[in-house]
Amino acid sequence: MLTKPLKAPQTETALKPAGIVPPPQIESFVYRGMEAKARGAAVAYEQNLHKGVFVAYLGAWVALFAIFAVSFANSPYTLFMIVIGALNGVALFGVPIVCARAGKWPTSSLAFGDFLCTEVATASGPLSGAEALAQVVMVPACLATGALAMAYIMHVDYLNVLAEVAAKTH
Asked: Domain segments of the chain: what residues?
């Protein structure tokens, strides 16, 4: 026979970090409480991403390759490699688009603003539409931002080299 006393079950207030996280942020995307997880099973989630998410994703990749093309316009060998990469991207993005046109394009029927506010079923769990958009577009957008920063640094360095050459010739 057990001699240890049984512990009282935890109450709902014990599950929330009341003194740590302010009340408006308790159910945010950073922390989902036990109640939200339990509620999630009964909620119908949007199953498909909005077409605007695909457009933003593709736009970020196009911006990256455009930044590369402008940054390395003086080097024909580099431009050749960028064209090869862009053609690879056309195949990578073009084939699924062509295949999707054969059937129904699986997108959300909601307006884009409404989609951003609804819950979407993703492989990592339910997210809001805005969080799903951020998750999809984050990598290509950061790559494009980094390429823009590198292009700016290269341009400033080139101007400094031109200024030094001009100062030496005079």
From this structure: 35-169
pLDDT tens column, 109-135: 788 888 888 888 888 888 888 998 999
CA distances from 130 to 46, 52, 135, 138, 155 (A): 13, 11, 9, 12, 35
Tokens of 59: 């736009």
- Enter the tokens of residue 121: 């079923």
Element housing 127 (H / E): strand 125-128
Judge whether residue 73 has pLDDT over 70.
Answer: yes
Summarised one tens digit per residue, pLDDT across range 35-61 is: 455 555 545 667 778 888 888 998 999
- The region, left, alpha or beta by phi > 0 then psi within -120 to 50, assigned to residue 125 is left
- Crossing angle for the helix pair 51-71 and 129-169, to the nearest 10 degrees: 10
The band of 26, judged by pLDDT with boundaries at 50, 70 and 90, is: very low
* Residue 44 structure tokens: 């119908």
H or E element that contains 122: strand 119-122
